[in-house]
Amino acid sequence: MMVSNENDFGERLTAARDKREMNQAELAKRAGLQAAAIGHFERGRRKPSFANVRALAKALNVSSDYLLGRTPSMEGATTAFRGEDDLSSADRDQIQLMIDMMRERRERSDP
Q1: Best CA proximity match to 30, nearest among 77, 73, 93
Q2: Low-confidence spans in the chain with pLDDT less than 50
Q3: Cα(97)–Cα(102) distance, rounded to whole angstroms?
Q4: Which of 2, 4, 43, 110 has the lowest tally of Cβ within 10 angstroms?
Q5: Does residue 37 contact residue 10 with C-beta atoms inside 8 Å?
Q6: Residue 108: what pLDDT?
Q7: What pLDDT is recorded for position 2?
Q8: Phi-psi region of 29 (alpha: psi -120 to 50; beta: other; left: phi over 0)
Q9: What is the 3-state secondary structure (H, E, C) of the chain?
Q10: Where along the chain do its domains lie?
Q11: Which PANTHER family has this protein been placed in (predicted)?
């Protein structure tokens, strides 16, 4: 296991949010948190609960281990396809819409 310093969480949260091209308000909305809380977490003023870490990881599509400093890199943490880690949040949303449409079409055609 990696040894992390006190501010690793905030730095990793900021890096993941920037990589996904989200501002603090967008991340807060996706994670079900207040925007001010994101700012506090990123600056190391507050420590998130386990539930908040999970919500943030899910909203950012990274592993909790990455945010907590247990894995060295965000890349490949939760990606399913080559290059997925380079996609913006909007790109991911568009792909999810396509997946949902394909799933619905398949369900309608299956007896």
Answers
A1: 93
A2: 1-4, 79
A3: 9
A4: 110
A5: no
A6: 86
A7: 41
A8: alpha
A9: CCCCCCCHHHHHHHHHHHHCCCCHHHHHHHHCCCHHHHHHHHHCCCCCCHHHHHHHHHHHCCCHHHHCCCCCCCCCCCCCCCCHHHCCHHHHHHHHHHHHHHHHHHHHHCC
A10: 8-109
A11: HTH-TYPE TRANSCRIPTIONAL REGULATOR (PTHR46797), METHYLPHOSPHONATE SYNTHASE (PTHR46797:SF1)
